[in-house]
Amino acid sequence: AVDLLTFGEALVSLRSAGPLAAGGALTMHLAGAESNVAIGLARLGHRAAWAGRVSDDELGGYVLRQLRAEGVGVDHVTRDPERPAGLMFLERRTADLTRVRYHRAGSAGSALGVEDLRPALAAGTRVLHLTGITPALSDSAREATRWAAETASRAGALVCLDVNHRARLWRRDDARVVLTPLAGHASVVVASADELDLVGEPGAAEETVVAGLLARGVATVLVKLGGDGARAYTADGVRHAGALPVTAVDTVGAGDAFTAGYLSGHLDGLDLAGRLRRAVTLGAFVVAGHGDWEALPRRDELSLLDDLQPG
Ligand code: KDG
């Protein structure tokens, strides 16, 4: 068994330093909200595994190599000989504005199905992490996500749904119809403030959505507030955690880092305040460094930000 299992699509991200239309050099990186979370856990010494489909070519090989290099278990990854790798272009348009363009329709990752996840779940996990990205990829990926959430929660794992709305993949109304029932299988739901009504009624206030989730059996709702930190709701009430005051150079991946920190704290048996502190600490590392996951801390680096007081 592992500490954390996550699954989804890992992408090859090609980053430009300036406008894509002007051409120039691209750099190649691993991307994917779920693989970011797996790396966050693995860097802290937890046993983390990632499952999914990757292309059976050099790009799929690159994805596997990156995950292995980070100590993420890839025993239950399927190689797909028929379909290409999913690509993402990350265009830096201005110093603080980036634009994302996907080339992932029909990719190996989007063909994920229940059979791809069965062996990984059978091997057992303490925590199952899933995102609202995966069910947007295809009908089979949607079914696989629902099946995994149900199976893991029945087996007693902590199921964490990280909403991660991707407007380029589906409309909010379509996302809500799928994500709201999915949240009912989760014990932890993570969403940014503007994503929260995707697991509740359209336009509903934060307190209303949270009350609905807690009534449906979700134990903890984490609302991410970016530079303002996060709020955590449980049956005992609400607690705010401020973000750590670091200079932000690249916010992509900060939400994944936050989730990884929270789940690491859970695995280490920390109380809610400790889990939140670790969540904002990992978020701070990632916004203060370049790349979606490269700046995530190792365990011996966690204390580097100990002196910073949350704002
Ligand atoms: O979460 C940060 C990026 O790595 C992520 O957004 C890429 O998985 C990704 C997606 O589908 O957008």
Description:
This protein has helices at about 35-45, 60-70, 115-125, 140-155, 170-185, 205-215, 255-265, 270-285; strands at about 1-5, 10-15, 25-30, 50, 55, 80, 85-95, 95-105, 125-130, 160, 190, 220-225, 230-235, 235-240. The chain contains eight helices and 14 strands. It is of the alpha/beta class. It starts with a strand and ends in a 24-residue tail after the last helix. It is about 30% helix and about 25% strand. The longest helix is centred in the middle third of the chain and has 16 residues, at about 140-155. The protein binds 2-keto-3-deoxygluconate (KDG). 2-keto-3-deoxygluconate binds near residues 32, 33, 36 and 256.
Itemize the secondary structure elements and their pairings.
Elements: E1 2-7, E2 11-16, E3 26-31, H1 33-43, E4 48-51, E5 53-55, H2 58-69, E6 78-80, E7 87-94, E8 97-103, H3 114-123, E9 125-131, H4 139-154, E10 158-162, H5 172-183, E11 188-192, H6 206-215, E12 220-224, E13 230-234, E14 237-241, H7 254-267, H8 272-287
Parallel strand pairs: 1-4, 1-9, 2-7, 5-6, 9-10, 10-11, 11-12
Antiparallel strand pairs: 2-3, 7-8, 12-13, 13-14
Helix pairs in contact: 1-7, 3-4, 7-8
